[in-house]
Amino acid sequence: MILERILWLAGTIILMGLAAFVFFRLFRVLIAYKITDKNITVLLFHFLPIYRVRFEKIVKMHSARVHEVAVIPGWHFPSRVFGRRVVIEMKDTWFRYAFLTPENPDAFISEIKKHLANFSENSGIHTGGDFGFGAGARPQGARPNALSSR
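RE: above sequence
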């Protein structure tokens, strides 16, 4: 009787663990990201486009922990449930933010920065800086800090 209950409890715990593993892995199968020359495309099942972040709409980007951005309104497309998010701030959209969870957020951001540089060079758009990525970035027309010139 007791052995039967222990085996039943052990089987239940194993099944719950297996279900949690499948649930968390399911997001990697469902959502993928593709960086093109003009946008970032969110793909369902790695082939069906469901959302595009156009490069001309991007204001700035950074990575953040899941608990820092979980309740912020925006487009959440997680491929990893508890992974670091790439926060993309956009202009002229219904939701100001898009949240993506690539395998390596820092490499993903640097790849987008390369595409943004090519996009701004090839399209003739004046970017007015480095899209808020660098520490030395300041608004166009802003004067440098008086202390930095000494």
